[in-house]
Write a structure and sequence with these properties.
Strand content: 5-15%
Helix content: 40-55%
Order of helices and strands: HHEEHEEHEHHHHHHHHHHH
Radius of gyration: 27 Å
Strand order of the largest sheet: 1-5-3-4-2
Shape: flat
Largest sheet: 5 strands, mixed
C-alpha cells in the first residue's frame, strides 16, 4: 500500500519554481499609475510655494506637448485617497493644461518618511525662499526626531534614517551644507508673523535682524510692522537686538519700539525699495537672491545707455 508523502510543496515555492527571475523582479517594482487629479491631495502644511510664473507656463506647455515625463510621488491614505509627496508643480501644470490625471509613482511610506522625502525632493529647486527653507527644516527635523525614537524594522523603506548615534541636526547639516547654527536661524524664522516673514523673502529684512525679531512677542512684532510701514525703513541688526533686550527686561512697549524704529540709519537714507515679487519675474532663475542687486544695477546701466543713444539719435 502506497504511503502518502510527508513532504508538501507550498504554493509559494511552486510560484517561485515556475516563474522567471524577470517576473519576480517585476513584481517587486513600484507601479506607475495615471491617477485622477480629484483623488490626489496636496501634502499637509507643504512648505514650498507653487508659483504660477513664467517657469510654470513653460512647464504647462511641456506637459501639453509631451505629458508628465517624471512621475509624481504619492502615498495612499487610509481613506483610499492619495497624498502628494513630490510633484506639486506637475499637478498644478496638469490642472492648468486641463488634464484629468497625473502620472504617479505610488510608494509605501509612513507619514514621517513621507515628510523627509518631500523635503529632500523639493530641496533640489534652484530657488528656495527663506520661509520655504525655514518650514522645510522644521518639518524634517521633527520627523527625524520621531523616527529616532522608534525601533528600526527589517526591510524598512529606504527613506528611513539610520542615525548611528548622530543627531538629526548633524545629518541635515551634512546633507544640505548649512551649518547647525544656520539651520537654527532658519527655523527661528517660523516664529515671525507673516508680514515680517514676507519681508525676509523679499530681501527687505536680512537674516540676522530677522532672527532677533523672531524672539519678540506677536503684538510687539506687529508694532514693528506698523513702524516699518510708517517710516518706510526696516530695523537694523542693532535695533533688533535692542528690542529683544528690552523685551527680556519687560520694557518693550509700543512707545519704545517707535523710538527705536524712528532712528535714522545711514544705510537707509534715500533708500529705494523694490518689491521682490515685481523684480524677480524679470531675473533669470539661476541668479541667486544675494546677487539680485548687482543684476538690477547692470540692467539699469544698459537701459541708461540705451536712453542716451536714443536721445542722441533724436537730436540729429
Amino acid at each position: 500500500m502506497a504511503r502518502k508523502s510527508d513532504f508538501t510543496l507550498s504554493t509559494k515555492s511552486l510560484d517561485e519554481l515556475f516563474s522567471s527571475q524577470e517576473e519576480r523582479s517585476e513584481a517587486k517594482l513600484t507601479k506607475i499609475y495615471d491617477l485622477p487629479l480629484e483623488l490626489i491631495d496636496d501634502f499637509p502644511d507643504h512648505p514650498y510655494k507653487v508659483r504660477e510664473d513664467e517657469d510654470m507656463m513653460q512647464l504647462v506647455e511641456s506637459v501639453k506637448e509631451r505629458g508628465v515625463i517624471t512621475p509624481a510621488t504619492v502615498r495612499q491614505k487610509e481613506d483610499g485617497r492619495y497624498e502628494l509627496i513630490s510633484g506639486h508643480r506637475r499637478k498644478r501644470a496638469c490642472e492648468i493644461a486641463g488634464f484629468p490625471t497625473l502620472r504617479c509613482e505610488v510608494v509605501d511610506l509612513t507619514r514621517d518618511e513621507a515628510i523627509i522625502l518631500m523635503v529632500e525632493s523639493n530641496f533640489q529647486r534652484s530657488q528656495i525662499l527663506p520661509s520655504e527653507k525655514a518650514y522645510a527644516y522644521k518639518m524634517r527635523l521633527e520627523a527625524m526626531k520621531r523616527q529616532a525614537g522608534r525601533p528600526r524594522k527589517e526591510n524598512s523603506s529606504p527613506v528611513g534614517i539610520d542615525f548611528r548615534g548622530k543627531q538629526s541636526l548633524d545629518i541635515v547639516s551634512e546633507e544640505t551644507g548649512d551649518s547647525r547654527n544656520q539651520i537654527h536661524r532658519y527655523i527661528r524664522l517660523t516664529n515671525l508673523v507673516p508680514e515680517l516673514l514676507e519681508m525676509v523673502d523679499e530681501g527687505r529684512i536680512k537674516m540676522r535682524p530677522a532672527v532677533e525679531l523672531s524672539y519678540l512677542e506677536e503684538d510687539a512684532q506687529r508694532d514693528v510692522v506698523d513702524e516699518i510701514d510708517m517710516n518706510d525703513a526696516t530695523p537694523s541688526h542693532d535695533q533688533a537686538i535692542r528690542m529683544r533686550k528690552f523685551q527680556s527686561e519687560g520694557r518693550l512697549t509700543t512707545e519704545a519700539i517707535q523710538a527705536i524704529m524712528s532712528e535714522e540709519k545711514p544705510n537707509q537714507r534715500e533708500k529705494i525699495i523694490l518689491r521682490g515679487d515685481r523684480v524677480r519675474q524679470y531675473i533669470p532663475k539661476n541668479i541667486p537672491i544675494t546677487q539680485t542687486e548687482d543684476y538690477v544695477c547692470k540692467a539699469l546701466e544698459h537701459y541708461a545707455k540705451y536712453l542716451r543713444q536714443r536721445s542722441e539719435r533724436d537730436s540729429r
